[in-house]
Amino acid sequence: MGSRIHSVDAMRIVAVALVVVIHTNPFEGVGASGNAVNFLLETTARVAVPFFFLASGYFFARKTLDRDPLAYFRSRARSLAELYAFGIALTLPVFLAGTALEAAAAGESVTRSVGGRLVESASPVDLLYYGTSVSEILWFIPALAVGLGLVAGFAALGRSDLVLPVAFALHAVGLLGPEYAGLVDLPVDVRDGLFFGFFYVSVGHAIAARGWRGGSGRSGTLLAATVGFGILHVVERYAVGYALGGASVATGVYAPSFTVGTAAFAVSLFLYLLSRPGLGASTHLPAWGSYAVGVYVAHPPVLAILDRIGDQALVGGTPLAETLGWHLAYAPATFLVALGVYLAAHRLGVIEIGGSHLPRLPRRLRRSPP
Q: Are the C-beta atoms of 53 and 200 separated by less than 8 Å?
């Protein structure tokens, strides 16, 4: 498969930190200036999820050059299912506890409220396809499985040439929907594997299939393109979210999941990283990249707990979540606690970093009988 691409491995941990920024909105509500800073951070961070899809498609293509794509997909699907199960095992108990606390505080039946939440969590479509039945944040895992499955299916049929055109058409339809342009009233959520994940996975797959192996010698041009498209991405989202609608950053933060400019920004960044495979090799970032999936699946319950603390704890009569210190510490704390949870799960033997993520009893509770 060739030498390691340190730049992509390093970007994994950076990208998951950006995902945490998206979900914490660290400066939203701190006046117009805070909203403006949060808008810039959130807009820049939107490159993170496409990056993960692009990287997955790229390495899927490279690893199936001399093997059956469907067989390799089954292996990847199994790994994703284990990771998804780990995420649910971490998140569901915390969310159910939150539901119970809210029901008790409102004088409602705790049993009925928790039971209702469990029923919602078992919704087949939301659980298995959209990945949102337990937590909206976990949507990425089923979406990646769908994207890889579609790419593998086309490859197995010998029609890999159709992957990118079909994926592009579906993504264009998604852009016409309410998430962005609002020109088409689609009856489905387009932030999914079909309209979103498939496109970026197919682009990553196409980049590898066309022989792009990194170290192209065009890193300067690609860096300029990344910066340029990044600026256009900000301008586009500002125009759509504020200027064209007569709105202001003082009223809130415009934060759609994706726009037209997201693709150009993400793809140019990914190509730049491929052109500089040694970038980050002298740091710990490439090694930390293996923790990215763990931070991703562990941070939803951490967010839920920190949100409750921030809303209920008081500092001089003011909710902690409204203090400047909270806005500064919220995102880093979420990232670090989620990382700690992941490392603790590995140390306890609940999962294995680099191996199976199917949760099991801690190692000490799995002693063999005498």
A: yes
